[in-house]
Amino acid sequence: QVQLVESGGGSVQAGGSLRLSCTGAGASYSMAWFRQAPGKEREGVAAIRSDGQTMYARSVKGRFTVSTDIDKNMLILGLQMDSLQLEDTAIYYCAAGLRSGALLSPNAYNFWGQGTQVTVYS
Protein backbone atom coordinates (compact mmCIF):
# COMPACT_ATOMS: atom_id res chain seq x y z
CA GLN A 1 0.00 0.00 0.00
CA VAL A 2 1.29 3.42 -0.94
CA GLN A 3 0.87 6.21 1.60
CA LEU A 4 1.67 9.64 0.28
CA VAL A 5 2.65 12.47 2.60
CA GLU A 6 2.83 16.07 1.42
CA SER A 7 4.73 18.91 3.04
CA GLY A 8 5.66 22.49 2.30
CA GLY A 9 2.36 24.29 2.04
CA GLY A 10 1.80 27.67 3.61
CA SER A 11 0.96 31.31 2.97
CA VAL A 12 2.90 33.59 0.68
CA GLN A 13 2.46 37.00 -0.83
CA ALA A 14 1.62 37.19 -4.53
CA GLY A 15 4.78 36.99 -6.59
CA GLY A 16 6.52 34.82 -4.03
CA SER A 17 7.58 31.18 -4.09
CA LEU A 18 6.83 27.96 -2.27
CA ARG A 19 8.10 24.42 -2.65
CA LEU A 20 5.98 21.34 -2.03
CA SER A 21 7.29 17.84 -1.43
CA CYS A 22 5.66 14.43 -1.38
CA THR A 23 7.07 11.06 -0.39
CA GLY A 24 5.77 7.50 -0.25
CA ALA A 25 5.79 6.03 -3.75
CA GLY A 26 8.25 3.69 -5.39
CA ALA A 27 10.45 4.57 -8.33
CA SER A 28 8.21 2.97 -10.95
CA TYR A 29 5.24 5.27 -10.32
CA SER A 30 4.07 8.22 -12.31
CA MET A 31 3.33 11.11 -9.98
CA ALA A 32 1.45 14.34 -10.13
CA TRP A 33 0.22 17.37 -8.28
CA PHE A 34 -3.44 18.29 -8.34
CA ARG A 35 -5.18 21.18 -6.65
CA GLN A 36 -8.68 22.04 -5.59
CA ALA A 37 -9.85 25.55 -4.81
CA PRO A 38 -13.08 26.22 -2.89
CA GLY A 39 -16.09 25.63 -5.10
CA LYS A 40 -14.02 24.25 -7.96
CA GLU A 41 -13.21 20.81 -9.27
CA ARG A 42 -9.86 19.17 -8.68
CA GLU A 43 -7.47 19.99 -11.51
CA GLY A 44 -4.16 18.56 -12.61
CA VAL A 45 -1.30 21.00 -12.13
CA ALA A 46 1.90 19.14 -13.02
CA ALA A 47 2.90 15.54 -13.56
CA ILE A 48 6.00 13.50 -14.17
CA ARG A 49 6.08 10.02 -15.59
CA SER A 50 8.51 7.33 -14.52
CA ASP A 51 10.51 7.94 -17.71
CA GLY A 52 10.88 11.62 -16.85
CA GLN A 53 8.26 13.07 -19.18
CA THR A 54 6.57 16.07 -17.61
CA MET A 55 3.31 17.84 -18.26
CA TYR A 56 1.92 21.11 -16.92
CA ALA A 57 -1.43 22.82 -16.85
CA ARG A 58 -1.46 25.86 -19.07
CA SER A 59 -2.12 28.12 -16.09
CA VAL A 60 1.14 27.18 -14.36
CA LYS A 61 3.50 26.52 -17.25
CA GLY A 62 6.63 28.61 -16.90
CA ARG A 63 5.97 29.27 -13.22
CA PHE A 64 5.88 25.78 -11.68
CA THR A 65 8.49 23.04 -11.98
CA VAL A 66 7.85 19.40 -11.10
CA SER A 67 10.74 17.10 -10.22
CA THR A 68 11.59 13.81 -8.63
CA ASP A 69 14.52 12.56 -6.58
CA ILE A 70 15.08 9.04 -5.35
CA ASP A 71 16.05 8.14 -1.81
CA LYS A 72 16.26 4.45 -0.81
CA ASN A 73 14.18 3.52 -3.89
CA MET A 74 11.40 5.88 -2.86
CA LEU A 75 10.44 8.86 -4.95
CA ILE A 76 10.50 12.35 -3.54
CA LEU A 77 8.17 14.43 -5.65
CA GLY A 78 8.76 18.15 -5.66
CA LEU A 79 6.84 21.15 -6.97
CA GLN A 80 8.67 24.46 -7.12
CA MET A 81 6.09 27.21 -7.41
CA ASP A 82 7.36 30.64 -8.45
CA SER A 83 5.55 33.88 -9.31
CA LEU A 84 2.56 32.71 -7.30
CA GLN A 85 -0.77 34.32 -8.06
CA LEU A 86 -3.93 34.71 -6.01
CA GLU A 87 -5.56 32.12 -8.29
CA ASP A 88 -3.04 29.51 -7.14
CA THR A 89 -4.68 29.39 -3.72
CA ALA A 90 -5.94 25.84 -3.21
CA ILE A 91 -5.36 22.57 -1.44
CA TYR A 92 -2.60 20.76 -3.30
CA TYR A 93 -2.67 16.98 -3.50
CA CYS A 94 0.07 14.57 -4.42
CA ALA A 95 -0.92 11.53 -6.50
CA ALA A 96 0.85 8.36 -7.60
CA GLY A 97 -0.21 5.72 -10.07
CA LEU A 98 0.68 2.93 -12.43
CA ARG A 99 -2.31 3.28 -14.73
CA SER A 100 -2.09 4.42 -18.30
CA GLY A 101 -3.87 7.58 -19.29
CA ALA A 102 -3.44 11.30 -19.55
CA LEU A 103 -0.90 12.49 -17.03
CA LEU A 104 -3.08 15.32 -15.76
CA SER A 105 -6.20 13.20 -15.45
CA PRO A 106 -7.05 11.93 -11.95
CA ASN A 107 -8.00 8.61 -13.57
CA ALA A 108 -4.30 7.86 -14.04
CA TYR A 109 -3.64 7.71 -10.31
CA ASN A 110 -4.37 5.08 -7.70
CA PHE A 111 -3.11 6.79 -4.58
CA TRP A 112 -3.60 10.25 -3.10
CA GLY A 113 -2.13 12.25 -0.28
CA GLN A 114 -4.17 14.16 2.29
CA GLY A 115 -3.39 17.54 0.77
CA THR A 116 -1.55 20.66 1.86
CA GLN A 117 -2.95 24.18 1.86
CA VAL A 118 -1.36 26.87 -0.27
CA THR A 119 -2.64 30.40 0.27
CA VAL A 120 -1.49 33.35 -1.82
CA TYR A 121 -2.41 36.81 -0.52
CA SER A 122 -2.12 40.28 -2.00
How would you characterize this protein structure?
The chain has no helices and 11 strands. The chain is an all-beta fold and 122 residues long. The strands form 2 sheets. Strands 2, 4, 5, 6, 9, 10 and 11 form a 7-stranded mixed β-sheet that branches. Strands 1-3-8-7 form a 4-stranded antiparallel β-sheet, with no helix packed on it. Strand 4 and strand 5 form a beta hairpin. The N and C termini lie far apart (40 Å).
Task: Give a quick rundown of the structure.
The protein has 122 residues and is mostly beta strands.
How do the helices and strands line up, and which of them pair or pack?
Layout: E1 5-7, E2 10-13, E3 18-26, E4 30-36, E5 43-48, E6 54-56, E7 64-71, E8 74-81, E9 90-97, E10 111-112, E11 116-121
Parallel strand pairs: 2-11
Antiparallel strand pairs: 1-3, 3-8, 4-5, 4-9, 5-6, 7-8, 9-10, 9-11
Shape: globular
State the order of secondary-structure elements, H for helix, E for strand.
EEEEEEEEEEE
* Radius of gyration based on Cα positions: 13 Å
Helix content: under 10%
**Helix/strand structural class:** mainly beta
Count of DSSP strands: 11
SS strand fraction:
over 45%
Which regions contain 5 or more consecutive residues with pLDDT less than 50?
A: none
Figure out the total of helices. 0
Average of the residue pLDDT scores:
94
Q: Could you describe the largest sheet, including whether it forms a barrel?
A: 7 strands, mixed
Gap from first CA to last CA: 40 Å
